[in-house]
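Hi Y.,

Following your request, here is the sequence exactly as I used it, all 299 residues.
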Amino acid sequence: MKPTLLILAAGMGSRYGGLKQMDEIGPSGESIIDYSVFDAIRAGFGKVVFVIREDFADAFKARFEPRLRGRIETEYVFQSLDKVPSGFSVPEGREKPWGTGHAMLMAKDAIKTPFAIINADDFYGRTAYVQAVDFIQKSKNENEYAMIGYALKNTLSEHGTVSRGVCEADASGNLTRVTERTKIGLEGRKIFFYESDFKEELTGEEPVSMNFWIFKPTFFAHLEDGFKKFLSARGEEMKSEFYFNIQADNMVKSGEAEVKIINTPAKWFGVTYQEDKPMVLASLNELIDKGEYPSSLWI
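Below is the corresponding structure, written out as C-alpha cells. Let me know if you'd prefer a different format.
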C-alpha cells in the first residue's frame, strides 16, 4: 500500500497578505503545493490529504481537483476551532487555531497508511520525498518515526534572520534534542545565532526541522491523548497552541518512540512574506533550467 502525504493548508497567511497556498509561482501558474504533490507522486505516494478550512474549500478544490484527478487519490478534511474532544469546549473569545497538532488530528480518519506531513507553503525538494518513501518501505516498527533534516545553510534567507529548530542525534541517528534558535542570520559567508548579549557561529551543516515528518497511523492515538492533556492544562488560554512535533518529542523522551533524522541534501525554501516571492521564482526557474521539473507540471 502506497504512503499518504498530509498537507497542512488551513492557514490564510496573514503576514503574506492572502491565500498563499494557491498563489501562482510556477511558469504555468503552479503553486508550491503543486510542486509538493508532483514530487510526492513521482516518489511513490498514493494519496494526498489536505487539511483546509471549510470557508475556502470550494475554491481550493476547484483549483486542485482538475490537476490531480487521475494522478493521485485526494481527500479533504476541515480544521475548525470547535472540533475538540468530548468534554472540552472552546473558551469564549478565542479566535486563534489550536496549532499543527490539532490540524493533524483532523486527518486521523482519512489516513490508514504510513504518512508524511508537510506545510503547504514550503518547498522541500524532490530528494526529500524519495528519502521519506525509502524510510517508510524499510521501517517496520510502528513507533519508529522520522524527520527530514535540512542542513541549516540550505534554509537561510538573505533578507533577514530566521528561527530554526536545531536538531541533535545519538550515534544511531535518532533525534535526541531540538533546540529552538529564534534568531539565525548571515554575516557574509558566516552563519551566527544571536542572543541578547552574544552571538555564536554555526557551521551551517547542523540539521534543522522544517516540519517534514514521517509517522505511522498509530501516532494519531498518542496525538489525541496529548491534545486532551494540552486542553486540560492550557485550553483556557487565548493563544496556546498544540504542536505535533512536541508530542513526538515527548514520546522520544519517555521512550515510547524513536525519531530518525534523515539528513537531506535538498534545498528548502518557503514563502512567508510577499518579498520572498522573487527568490522563490528564481529558485524554481533554476531547477526548471536544470531539467529537474518540466515548465508545466500537469500538461
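Residues 219-234 form the longest helix (16 residues).

Thanks again,
Q.
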